[in-house]
């Protein structure tokens, strides 16, 4: 398998409808107006030597290697900074140019170590290549002058080295950090010979502002910034394009390999979601795939107090099938169910829900999206007619006002955040609605026009107050409403929001947001040009999560911000395949494509395809499964890729439910918290070990390609298929492509999707006869449901209230370097940044309680308590505390409650009344956590097959 080669055109592409024709070395070339001579030349297949230019960055013109001659012009202009002109005649080769280029190269090489043979970049070094291209044969100045060769390497970052002795001060790293990533962590310090690259205030990378996105490493044309994995293992020799398995941005990468070992992950420039960029997780945090904690053999045990016993796949699968059949014979066919995972591929989740519906004979299938974006499904379905974001990511380039509600893109969706920041630096305005002062509120060259720092739990009141201003101040786009929406529904809604009780002044006391800020933000969104809303779990994970989603949809319809580029309503999906797991019918009430199980026409499609009768009644949701387990009527569960004992709320109730079951099957990479209650463990495959698709937040169906064989010997879809066959319902797929063919046959929005098509490029669903190349922007001209539906959004305060015992509000979220329950990222170098969950507190709340920075504190709610250390910060308002949930020893979900969204049961993670008090250290339970964990993960030393 060869390396996937990407051409570097030197400067970025230019979008212009005016085309310009010129000749380069006698060849006629036609390119868009504004294109550089360098890019035009590359497009004609004529390579011009370069060092400071790369097509990920604007041209800079500092190295003077790329000189050309242009007839009629004096001198030798730099081709990277010279735009094409009609009729221009360019010459890229001449004796004069050769001499000039060699002279420049001589200067670079005279201050560069001559260790090419032992350099980590050997064979893949632009400096080395360019020296060859310009024909450098000698360095007349010698190598003994003053130089930088003794500069020390900074190896502080866990993933890359900075060796300044090899730096040619081309500024590509500095510009990548600014233009691509938007962090501005690097500078060129000093002048002339003293010039050097510095992180922050000339500090180690690890302690600087650097967020380890790796854009500078990718941009560096030498070995100055280099992945440690390349230093240790050598240059890769083949590569495979695949998709990141972390967040819902869905970045494409080249997995660069040597044999069956990954050497590095390089963001793919043709990736339609990431355009060659990445974050620290996707680029660097893949080491968990080889972590010694990985379980690679199936295991069973009779009781959860027994040690695990390694068995063959055959024994494990037969055991699962006989246990599930035994339970169904004893307690009825509804006594077992499945939980699918948004970490798994669309094909895998399709198969797991099919297992429930066709092999178990019930609709007891639910997914982790229950606890994150189920309100999105409900809310956007009710208002627009389908459960999905309306735009592609590129759309943000045309936004004038960007509204971020209950999302923290720089931590949770970093590559899209970089894109958004770029647009903001170009002048778009920003409104942030969030209890915390997230990084976007103020960053280098980015500042929000409005930050509505609302009290947790008051989203609906703020959103309705924004609508009040838009309606009562006459800012509604009446043409859009009259042409595109249900006008009766609009009239009812307009009357509702116009009520003075919804005014910013009337709601200020409840929301904590000054009325003038709400009014200003509403006016800006309604009148500032293209307005785009991006929201996250800070909207959905509330008792009124679905109401808030509908309130957002109302705002977009009222202002006409739908159905074109630059606008829209965009849920930022947390996990890689949240969209796909929902699309694939993982919910108990819906078959694939969001079609209700009660619909006989839809059931008929699957009954014909699967040869079974499908129950028209929705099955159990996760909380109902756990309730039924405690009541003794639900006894068997197959959980693929989820850790509900850590990620779901009210852990005591979750574990009580799991403990009450007779056969819990966990299918995962590691023995997670849920596995403590499991009777069967099936070893899962990492994304590097599987083929399939992940569907990102833009509805884009990205191919995931296997780069190595599953370490357990069996792919995840094969294990599900084997369980089904063992239970007597036959499945005989040859591979994920065949599963996708079945999805396309039975799901109208996927009718045009096939692996052959996806090999030509990722498409966004709907992809069918009406939209053969997919649908980047939804609801153009007409909503999926016909007329847009305004929904009344009465604000109902949550029952979770502060009081004398629990006077603070806890809200939870993620941090850049960690991912969800941390099962993957905790097993990588990312622990360098977030080795434990901390409790963010306002200094005022801390001093009232005698708490100092770094003190251990006890965090208590009515459901439980835990201890962690305090981080004092004004990012949170007084009265609000915040923590992450990445480390099982913290057990943040011990304190979250069983309150949930009224429509979907999505837990109210974002609002828990708590008290915080000083304590001496970790609780006894936490101190012994690791010992308990080791004990419960005991594996008996019995060889496979015995
Ligand atoms: S890794 Fe990313 S954030 Fe850090 S210096 Fe490089 S470009 Fe900037
Ligand atoms: S570190 Fe690399 S990219 Fe940055 S200035 Fe030096 S050579 Fe150029
Ligand atoms: S932004 Fe998301 S998809 Fe992209 S590399 Fe980071 S974690 Fe992966
Ligand atoms: S590549 Fe054009 S000046 Fe450096």
UniProtKB/TrEMBL annotation:
Residue ranges annotated for the 4Fe-4S Mo/W bis-MGD-type domain, each copy included: 237-293
Pfam families with a match to the protein in the record: Fer2_4, Fer4_7, Molybdop_Fe4S4, Molybdopterin, Molydop_binding, NADH-G_4Fe-4S_3
Gene Ontology CC annotation, any one: membrane
Domain 4Fe-4S ferredoxin-type: 158-189, 202-230
Keyword annotations: 2Fe-2S, 4Fe-4S, Iron, Iron-sulfur, Metal-binding, Oxidoreductase, Repeat
Highest taxon in the source lineage: Bacteria
GO biological process per UniProt: formate metabolic process; respiratory electron transport chain
Domain 4Fe-4S His(Cys)3-ligated-type: 96-135
PROSITE patterns for this protein: 2FE2S_FER_2 (PS51085), 4FE4S_FER_1 (PS00198), 4FE4S_FER_2 (PS51379), 4FE4S_HC3 (PS51839), 4FE4S_MOW_BIS_MGD (PS51669), MOLYBDOPTERIN_PROK_3 (PS00932)
GO molecular function list: 2 iron, 2 sulfur cluster binding; 4 iron, 4 sulfur cluster binding; formate dehydrogenase (NAD+) activity; metal ion binding; molybdopterin cofactor binding; NADH dehydrogenase activity
Ranges for domain 2Fe-2S ferredoxin-type: 18-96
PANTHER family listed in its UniProt record: FORMATE DEHYDROGENASE H, RESPIRATORY NITRATE REDUCTASE
Recorded family membership: In the C-terminal section; belongs to the prokaryotic molybdopterin-containing oxidoreductase family. Belongs to the complex I 75 kDa subunit family.
NCBIfam families: Fdh-alpha
Protein name as it appears in the record: Formate dehydrogenase subunit alpha
Organism: Rhodopila globiformis
């Amino acid at each position: 398998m060869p390396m996937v080669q990407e051409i570097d055109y030197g400067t970025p592409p230019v979008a212009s409808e005016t085309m310009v024709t010129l000749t380069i070395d006698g060849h006629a070339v036609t390119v868009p107006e504004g294109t550089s001579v360098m890019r035009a030349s590359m497009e004609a297949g004529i390579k011009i030597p370069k060092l400071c230019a790369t097509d990920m960055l604007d041209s800079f013109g500092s190295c003077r290697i790329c000189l050309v001659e242009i007839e009629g012009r004096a001198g030798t202009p730099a081709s990277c900074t010279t735009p094409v002109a009609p009729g221009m005649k360019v010459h890229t080769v001449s004796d004069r140019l050769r001499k000039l280029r060699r002279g420049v190269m001589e200067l670079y090489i005279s201050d560069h170590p001559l260790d090419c043979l032992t350099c980590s970049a050997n064979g893949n070094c632009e400096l080395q290549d360019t020296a060859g291209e310009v024909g450098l044969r000698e360095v007349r100045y010698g190598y003994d002058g003053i130089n930088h060769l003794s500069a020390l390497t900074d190896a502080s970052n866990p993933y890359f080295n900075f060796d300044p002795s090899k730096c040619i001060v081309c500024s590509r790293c500095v510009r990548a950090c600014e233009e691509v990533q938007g962090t501005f962590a690097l500078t060129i310090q000093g002048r002339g010979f003293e010039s050097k690259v510095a992180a922050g205030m000339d500090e180690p990378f690890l302690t600087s502002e650097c967020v380890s996105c790796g854009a500078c490493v990718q941009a560096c044309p030498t070995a100055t910034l280099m992945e440690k994995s390349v230093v240790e293992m050598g240059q890769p020799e083949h590569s495979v394009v695949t998709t990141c398995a972390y967040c819902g941005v869905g970045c494409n990468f080249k997995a660069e390999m040597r044999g069956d070992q990954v050497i590095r992950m390089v963001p793919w420039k043709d990736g339609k979601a990431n355009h060659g960029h990445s974050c620290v997780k996707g680029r660097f945090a893949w080491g968990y795939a080889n972590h010694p904690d990985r379980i690679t053999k199936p295991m069973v045990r009779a009781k959860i107090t027994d040690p695990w016993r390694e068995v063959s796949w055959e024994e494990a699968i037969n055991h699962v099938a006989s246990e599930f059949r035994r339970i169904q014979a004893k307690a009825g066919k509804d006594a077992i169910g499945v939980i699918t995972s948004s970490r798994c591929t669309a094909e895998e989740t399709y198969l797991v829900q099919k297992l429930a519906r066709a092999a178990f004979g019930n609709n007891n299938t639910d997914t982790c999206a229950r606890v994150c974006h189920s309100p999105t499904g409900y809310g956007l379905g009710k208002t627009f007619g389908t459960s999905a974001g309306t735009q592609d990511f590129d759309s943000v380039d045309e936004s004038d006002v960007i509204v971020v509600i209950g999302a923290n893109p720089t931590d949770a969706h970093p590559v899209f955040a970089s894109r958004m920041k770029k647009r903001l630096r170009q002048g778009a305005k920003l409104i942030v609605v969030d209890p915390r002062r997230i990084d976007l509120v103020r960053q280098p060259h980015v500042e929000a026009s409005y930050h509505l720092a609302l009290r947790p739990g008051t989203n609906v009141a703020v959103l309705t107050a924004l609508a009040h201003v838009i309606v009562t101040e006459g800012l509604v786009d009446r043409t859009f409403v009259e042409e595109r929406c249900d006008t009766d529904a609009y009239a009812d809604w307009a009357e509702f929001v116009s009520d003075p009780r919804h005014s910013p002044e009337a709601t200020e006391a409840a929301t904590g947001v000054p009325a003038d800020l709400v009014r200003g933000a509403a006016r800006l969104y309604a009148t500032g040009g293209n307005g785009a809303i991006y929201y996250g779990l800070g909207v959905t994970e509330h008792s009124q999560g679905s109401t808030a989603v509908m309130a957002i949809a109302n705002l977009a319809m009222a202002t006409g911000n739908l159905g074109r580029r630059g606008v829209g309503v965009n849920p930022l999906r947390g996990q890689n395949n949240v969209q796909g797991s929902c699309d694939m019918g993982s919910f108990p009430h819906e078959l694939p494509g969001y079609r209700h199980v009660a619909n006989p026409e839809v059931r008929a499609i699957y009954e014909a395809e699967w040869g079974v009768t499908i129950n028209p009644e929705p099955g159990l949701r996760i909380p109902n499964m756990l309730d039924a387990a405690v009541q003794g009527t639900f006894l068997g569960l197959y959980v693929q890729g989820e850790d509900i004992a850590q990620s779901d709320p009210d852990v005591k109730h979750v574990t009580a439910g799991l403990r009450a079951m007779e056969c819990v099957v966990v299918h995962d990479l590691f023995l997670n918290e849920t596995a403590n209650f499991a009777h069967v463990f099936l070893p899962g495959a990492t994304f590097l070990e599987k083929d399939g698709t992940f569907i990102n937040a833009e509805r884009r169906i990205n191919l995931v390609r296997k780069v190595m064989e599953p370490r357990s010997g069996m792919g995840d879809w094969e294990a599900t298929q084997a369980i089904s066959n063992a239970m007597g319902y036959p499945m005989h797929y040859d591979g994920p492509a065949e599963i996708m063919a079945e999805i396309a046959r039975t799901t109208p929005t996927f009718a045009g999707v096939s692996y052959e098509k996806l090999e030509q490029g990722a498409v966004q669903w709907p992809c069918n006869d009406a939209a053969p190349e997919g649908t980047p922007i939804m609801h153009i001209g007409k909503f999926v449901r016909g007329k847009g539906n305004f929904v009344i959004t009465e604000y109902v305060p949550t029952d979770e209230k502060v009081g004398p015992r629990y006077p603070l509000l806890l809200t939870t979220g993620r941090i850049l370097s960690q991912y969800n329950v941390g099962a993957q990222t905790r097993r990588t170098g990312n622990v360098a940044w977030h080795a434990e969950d901390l409790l963010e507190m306002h200094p005022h709340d801390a001093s009232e309680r005698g708490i100092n920075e770094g003190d251990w504190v006890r965090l208590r709610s009515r459901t439980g308590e835990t201890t962690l250390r305090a981080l004092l910060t004004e990012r949170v308002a007084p009265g609000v505390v915040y923590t992450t949930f990445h480390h099982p020893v913290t057990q943040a979900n011990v304190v979250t409650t069983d309150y949930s969204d009224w429509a979907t049961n999505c837990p109210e993670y974002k609002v828990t009344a708590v008290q915080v008090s000083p304590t001496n250290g970790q609780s006894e339970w936490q101190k012994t956590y690791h010992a308990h964990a080791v004990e419960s993960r005991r594996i008996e030393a019995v060889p496979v097959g015995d």
